[in-house]
Amino acid sequence: MRTLVLGRTPARVAAVLATLREDGFDAEGVSTDEETRKLLETEEFGVLIIGGGVGPDSRATIKELAARHRVRRVIDGALTAPFDVYVRREFEPLIRETAAEG
Asked: Is the CB of residue 98 less than 8 Å from the CB of residue 47?
């Protein structure tokens, strides 16, 4: 199951992606709403992670778009250091659970 990560800070997006990929997840990351929109329209993503830096208006719009494009779970996140520990504790179990739901 592909995961899309949206975060406003490219370095944090890269850190999340590094951990997810290291742990065997298929993930892609972006920093803008437009990039997110284009990728969601492919309907290839089952999970969307939205970072804490994404404002409320953008967050609401992206969630609506995700619902229209077959995203099965949206995870709201706000990374805390160490980032790899947070990703493994908060994101990975939810991605696995969503994948197991078939």
From this structure: yes
